[in-house]
Amino acid sequence: MSIMGLILVAQAAAPAVAAPPDIEIHAHADIRSVQIRSQGQAQLTLHAEPGDAPPVEVVRSAPPGATKYRNLRIDLHGFARLKPPPPIAAIDTTTTGDPQ
What is the distance, to the nearest Å, from the Cα of residue 10 to the centroid of all Cα atoms in its chain? Predict the structure, then answer.
């Protein structure tokens, strides 16, 4: 097998690398002290239209449910990928435009 043949086989066998996201958000918060007075829900979501956005990843240094936290760390990571726009219709350039 030639060198070019080996290169083509190696390229075909290589796993596809995912394209980087179109939109990406990283947030990091270090909270010295916080007291929660009323329970509720907080959420962060990303939407891409047209496209898709998996759920935002949230990593906390302490489990939820307490009413007081000290030295709390929260890290968020979210991303979205946009779908390519539909193709633009071709314009007919074969006519001259003369109204004869």
Answer: 29
Cα 82 from Cα 36, distance rounded (Å):
37
First to last CA, the chain: 63
Give the tens place of pLDDT for each residue, 24-55.
999 999 999 999 888 788 788 888 888 888 89
Angle subtended at Cα 46 by Cα 63 and Cα 72, rounded to the nearest 5 degrees: 25
In the structure, how many helices (H) and strands (E) does the chain have? 1, 4
Q: How far apart are CA 59 and CA 42, in angstroms?
A: 14
Alpha carbon distance 40, 61 (integer Å): 19
Whole-model pTM: value is 0.59
Residues β-bridged to residue 59: 75
